[in-house]
Amino acid sequence: MKKIFKKYLPHQLVQYLMYLRNWEHNIYSLNTQININLDTNISDFFIWGKEFSKIEFVAENLRALLSGKNIEVFHTFRFFSEDGEFIEEQKFSSSKFFERIKINPIKTESKYISFTHFVDSEKSLKKILEEAGLIENKNICEQNRGYTMYYPGNKNFGCSAHGNFGGISKNKLIRSKTNLKKHIYTSVYEYNKNSVYEIVFNNPTAKTISIKILLNNSKEKIILELPSFGTRFFKVKNYRGSISFESNLPICRPLIFKNPAPNFEGNFDVFHS
């Protein structure tokens, strides 16, 4: 039936019907799902930490990758405070297919904040695809994922994590949304007593969200309030077992720093849950 719908019905109507089918579990709003096109430029919402000795971002150059040659682009990073206020912008130019960019220090008292990453060039991605004859599917868009490299102490040793889910467009149209129903997300990980963890959440939606942290082997329950574009974290120590997160987000997936910075012991790690 799904194949028949796709074959005979207009694309936007198919998108609408599929969206209604999963109404309570969609990550993105209906409007932004239907109106995706090559003029849309979307970023994940990444985590920056104050106490790391160095943070780098591994950025890809889609224009160079698709054309098979070096093309100069501008990588733009926008940083937001723990309460979601814009702090500053950093811009770097590169023509490489992939570029490891060292992020400049940010003046903030917060331990963790969040940032977006967008790519621009003199020749648009849409124009490059048109010249390469790759423009048949118009219902695609540019998404900037990338990896953030965290160095907890020694500047020659670090760990990386990719973005969470693309939710913020360049024109500040927020794609990610909350749902009416609560969802419970459980980490596929067993926390252990020999390590300390900092669980970091950010909010890519337009609304303030409430996250209930459930330590499943304990009666302790913690509630974090995150404003739009805001960042919060919770420290876990001397605990063994699983942890769940209850919120109105379909996927409330934090970034977890194991034995966080500053750390010169060699037992640091960062991962999604």
Care to describe what's here?
With 273 residues, the protein is mainly β. It has three domains: 1-35, no CATH class; 37-169, Hypothetical Protein Tm1070, Chain: A (Sandwich); 183-272, Sandwich (Jelly Rolls), CATH 2.60.120. It contains five helices and 19 strands. The chain has helices spanning 2-8, 11-21, 30-34, 62-67, 125-131, and strands spanning 41-43, 46-49, 54-60, 73-80, 86-94, 98-102, 112-120, 142-144, 147-151, 159-162, 168-169, 183-186, 197-202, 209-215, 221-226, 231-236, 243-247, 255-258, 269-272.
Radius of gyration, in angstroms, nearest whole number: 20 Å
Order of SSEs, N→C?
HHHEEEHEEEEHEEEEEEEEEEEE
The rounded distance between the terminal residues' Cα atoms is 35 Å
Instruction: Give the biggest beta sheet.
Output: 4 strands, antiparallel
Helix tally equals 5
**Average residue-wise pLDDT:** 86
Beta-strand content estimate = 35-45%
Helix content: 10-25%
CATH topology name of the largest domain, in short, is Hypothetical Protein Tm1070, Chain: A
Given the C-alpha coordinates, what overall shape results?
globular
Number of strands: 19
Mind telling me the CATH class of the largest domain? Mainly Beta
- CATH architecture name of the largest domain: Sandwich
Strand order of the biggest β-sheet: 2-7-4-5
Uncertain regions: pLDDT < 50 for 5+ in a row? none
Q: Briefly note the structural class of the backbone.
A: mainly beta
As for the number of domains, it is 3
